[in-house]
Amino acid sequence: MTSRPGRAPGPEVDALIIGAGLSGLVAARQLLAAGLSVRVLDKGRSVGGRLATRRMAGAVVDHGAQFFTVRGPSLSAQVDDWTSRGLVRVWCNGFDGDDGHPRYIGTAGMNSLAKDLAARVDIRVPSMAVATRFDDLGHWEVTTDDGTVHRSASLLSTAPVPQSFSLVFESVEGLPREVFDADYDRTLGLLVVLDGPSAVPPPGGVQHPRPGVAFVADNSLKGISPVPALTVHADPEWSLDRWDADADLVESELHQLAEPFIGQASIVEAQVKRWRFATPRQPWSERCWIDDGTRLVLGGDAFAGPRFEGAWDSGVAAAEAVVTLCRSRR
Ligand SMILES: Cc1cc2nc3c(=O)[nH]c(=O)nc-3n(C[C@H](O)[C@H](O)[C@H](O)COP(=O)(O)OP(=O)(O)OC[C@H]3O[C@@H](n4cnc5c(N)ncnc54)[C@H](O)[C@@H]3O)c2cc1C
Fold it and tell me: Which residue range forms the structural domain that includes residue 83?
């Protein structure tokens, strides 16, 4: 690319997206479908964010989102497509009896859905946005931790809102303090590969089974792992109480929480997982936040609900906003 002396070069893409979690990926797909050029940056080694699946000791373990539900037509259409391609199926209709509402899973783990959405999208990983600037010519400049400067006509950040705030607050006036003041619940989790069946009953998931535990999944009964493996998520209070405790103590206490679900099996391998930004406590009242003046949009599950479908809906709304902002600029 060439540039006039003394002037910054023009934007490389119409829309730059920070975050390749579900919201960012859905938005990227919609923007490409609308004919805009898009680039997505994520600080992780791969796409998916909280849609995370780990392979360990022959097991396949979902360690972020465990399943999802569908209410609206937008996600419903995508689920029909995923189901027809064998990427999604119903796990069960509830964990404490049949309540008639399907719980969907990725047949190869939740992260496989992120990978499917990421196909053919220009994604840069690992690429952590460390600074942003809205320049005099009305373009965004985002600098990543490898020193690259990405230039775009619009910016969509789907990072957790405190991180979005620290990236853009110097460039934008009128950022809503309330949303950035809101904190996220944390989750401490234990992933355990077993040498035999666990004590978790079919269908392989239990919600709030004992004090301190939010959810336990048997990834084998769930149908994603060839060998028995548990995901044990502590609840927000338990996780907050121990967040800064000694790592060995946390691991030992997580093992105590997990013990009743391990039953007679022995542990082959165990790992602790920490989610600092697991669940936004008070979602914003609108599906995204838009600044017309700088063509900045903020999205993610903090805006449309702290779950898979909230992240999806926010990504869709954010993409619509970016399309409008970019078209009004032309
Ligand atoms: C333990 C746990 C269990 C859950 N269980 C369920 C469940 O069973 N059902 C359900 O519906 N939902 C569940 N959820 C919630 C669901 O996972 C989220 O709502 C959804 O995945 C959020 O997607 P997102 O795109 O908004 O955010 P994220 O997935 O968090 O994506 C944001 C992305 O931004 C990236 N990022 C952040 N800062 C930067 C930066 N400076 N530069 C570049 N990239 C950056 C991050 O790496 C991340 O990939 C669970 C979440 C957790 C943590």
Answer: 53-109+183-280
